[in-house]
Amino acid sequence: FTMFFVALYHACDGPGLPLVCFMRRDALEYFSVYGTALSMWVSLMALADFDEPKRSTFVMFGVLTIAVRIHHDRWGYGVYSGPIGTAVLIIATKWLQQMKEKKGLYPDKSVYTQQIGPGLCFGALALMLRFFFEDWDYTYVHSFYHCALAMSFVLLLPKVNKKAGSAGPPAKLDC
């Protein structure tokens, strides 16, 4: 969803590819920003590691509030700072509860040093590029924004999907 609308928006925004623009530019812009903010929200909720139905409730809360926020103002700081700030608050609360129950650090120290620290640094770099430096050289700075944002979530997302089953090797398709 996100990659489709971001790629299509950027293709239609630049010169030379008006043939692929089957939607209004305004709609492409909305879904591009919406998909990016929503991807951030869902990725950060994966970090929180909630069980059902709490996970679905938080994800749906983000889906609806982000849609309204982006409809109100697509280019303001709140488009990303709202979902990110709320997700960080939710994750911090969840992890503090885990630390209280465990009576120790949660998650392990290595997760903070190898994933969360570098991931937050790349995320901060991406947002600084997006909001403060894009007018320097839009093409290169915006491309690096996308790379930094992607690297941030590669680092932040959990290395193991705890929700996936462990029923052995994946099934082979017979064609």
Automatic annotation (TrEMBL):
<dbReference type="Pfam" id="PF12036">
    <property type="entry name" value="DUF3522"/>
</dbReference>
<dbReference type="GO" id="GO:0005886">
    <property type="term" value="C:plasma membrane"/>
</dbReference>
<feature type="transmembrane region" description="Helical">
    <location>
        <begin position="77"/>
        <end position="96"/>
    </location>
</feature>
<protein>
    <submittedName>
        <fullName>Transmembrane protein 8C</fullName>
    </submittedName>
</protein>
<feature type="transmembrane region" description="Helical">
    <location>
        <begin position="116"/>
        <end position="133"/>
    </location>
</feature>
<feature type="transmembrane region" description="Helical">
    <location>
        <begin position="27"/>
        <end position="48"/>
    </location>
</feature>
<keyword id="KW-0812">Transmembrane</keyword>
<keyword id="KW-1003">Cell membrane</keyword>
<keyword id="KW-1133">Transmembrane helix</keyword>
<comment type="similarity">
    <text>Belongs to the TMEM8 family.</text>
</comment>
<dbReference type="InterPro" id="IPR021910">
    <property type="entry name" value="NGX6/PGAP6/MYMK"/>
</dbReference>
<keyword id="KW-0472">Membrane</keyword>
<feature type="transmembrane region" description="Helical">
    <location>
        <begin position="139"/>
        <end position="157"/>
    </location>
</feature>
